[in-house]
Known about the structure:
VC0467-like, alpha+beta
Amino acid sequence: MREFGSPSLSLAGSILVAHPGLLDPNFRRSVIFLSANDPEEGSFGVVLTRPAGRKVSDLLTTQEVGTLGHIPVLIGGPVSTDQLIFATFEWHPDTQRMDSKHHVAIEEAEAALKAPNTVVRAFVGYAGWSKGQLETELAQHAWLVAKPDRHILGVARSATLWRDTLSPFGPQFRLAAEAPDDPSRN
């Protein structure tokens, strides 16, 4: 069995589920789709659990964006929060895998809206790790790694996605996932 830190095993196409003990406000109770992962080059992902409450047309007011204007925007992470990026997510039914391209041009994102098994999302910011940084966080058990299902990108799921993806890791995680965010308000 290969270790996650091994150079021959890329985690691209996986989701990172924040461990209940991860208290960093940028990632607490978050789920990240990891679209690029290389222990030597670093990693890139986008947070799927933080809707911004805005649509693309709300942010790109001086630009014609066509049907992309209706796409909800998510807070993708703490890096480059002054940038709006488009990402495409393609589900491969034969392999039950999801691939992603990030920093997609508007024209390419518009074309991807018509592609089968493809979802387009917009993000303000992203999550990035330098060489070996994610592997260190994985070794410290800050993240749990899972395979995404084809419905993970449903924006309506954002509010419960962390809980839903954490629970299958076992009873202690299920209990943590069901605990209120602020126990004093229980």
